[in-house]
Amino acid sequence: MFNRDRWSEILEALSSNWFRTVLTAFGVLWGIFILVILLAAGKGLENGVKADFGDIATNTMFMWTQTISKPYKGLPKGRRFTYRLGDVQAIKDNVPELRFISPRNQLGGFGGSNNVVRGLNTGAFNVYGDYPEIIEQQPMDITSGRFINYGDIEEKRKVAIIGEGVKTALYSSNEDVLGTYIKINGVNFIVVGTYKKKSQGGDSEEDQKEIYVPFTSFSQAFNRGDRVGWMAITANDGSSITELKEQIFDVVKQRHTIHPDDDRAIGNFDLYEQYSRIEGLFFALKLIAYFVGTLVLLSGVIGISNIMLIVVKERTKEIGIRRALGATPWAIRGQVLLESIVLTILSGMLGISLGALVIYAINKVLDANGPVDMFSNPSVDITVVISALIILIISGLLAGFIPAQNAIKIKPVDALRTE
């Protein structure tokens, strides 16, 4: 298929009018470059937005109580209700597709009064009463010690796991925190572990300033009884929490005598629903990138096809001589197609290389200056590069097909008469 003479003919044809060749190749180069940059930018935006979710289990819903908005069975609207541990068990019994149900209670928070004391140091921190499953729903790295276990739950141990931010605020830099005591609202808890969350969202600093204690010891120490402030609920793999949440709401409404149509009584944040919307958005952006890049690439391919028509016209006499000397129609067609494919692939590969250099430069700037909100690590998958190469080969064939057909239609006698 390729030999030295064939390569020489191709190079001579492309270099005979190099300025025209460069301008023609630029159309394909620019189309591939735009496609690569658009896909990389979309991926960078996707990475940045998804990083805000951290490592939290995305098939999760957070559920809390709100004011009841409809009277029901003689009970007035405007009343409030509280979740109980019995609600947790009822949800488990009636909605078996759920993987985790974590009842939670909370003290303090950002902007609140100082609620934690250690020696002469004090601070205002979020304190959560939790079950061990919460680390599966809101993953964190345990940097020392351990997390809550069911022994702590059953024995109501007053143990605490503190964030690295809490450690910095209450302890000196070289101090060993494990085995020390902190006082939360006047109650002593022993520190058995430290953690660091991977969240990269806007509240990442505050995420490190939280304290986790067993749900049972929290309830006992702060007189919460069996009350539950809110719940983190995660569905099994293969099930959608969005599809299951109405069943969960029905269980709660029956237990607390709430009107079945009262949609305002139960507050919730469906993380899976939000995540699915984002997935759909980025899928649409990817389609747009392919559409725009393909249109730009198509304009370049049309340019190559037009140039090849001109080249065939200029080489009419040469084609006539080759036909007279016995060249087959396929040999003439193959020569034109090969010239078109080589020009398309070379210009396309230059476009991919240029796009890769730009992406590399952007990543170097991001690494040097730190992450930008909602934009991180723009990149293009290797499958995109392979797809681009396939597109280039097909485009080269399409660009050369019409000129090649015109070339073989030229009769030797007519071609030799051409001046």
Automatic annotation (TrEMBL):
As one GO molecular function, the record gives: transmembrane transporter activity
Subcellular location as annotated: Cell membrane
**Which keywords does this chain's UniProt record carry?**
ATP-binding, Cell membrane, Membrane, Nucleotide-binding, Transmembrane, Transmembrane helix
Q: Give all residue intervals belonging to the MacB-like periplasmic core domain.
A: 21-248
Query: Where are the membrane-spanning stretches?
Result: 21-41, 287-312, 341-362, 382-402
Q: Which GO terms describe its cellular component?
A: plasma membrane
Membrane topology type, per the record? Multi-pass membrane protein
What Pfam family is a match, any one? MacB_PCD
InterPro entries, from UniProt?
ABC3_permease_C, MacB_PCD, Macrolide_Exporter_MacB
Q: Which residues form the ABC3 transporter permease C-terminal domain?
A: 291-412
* Assigned protein family: Belongs to the ABC-4 integral membrane protein family.
Q: What is this protein called?
A: Multidrug ABC transporter ATP-binding protein
Name its species: Pukyongia salina
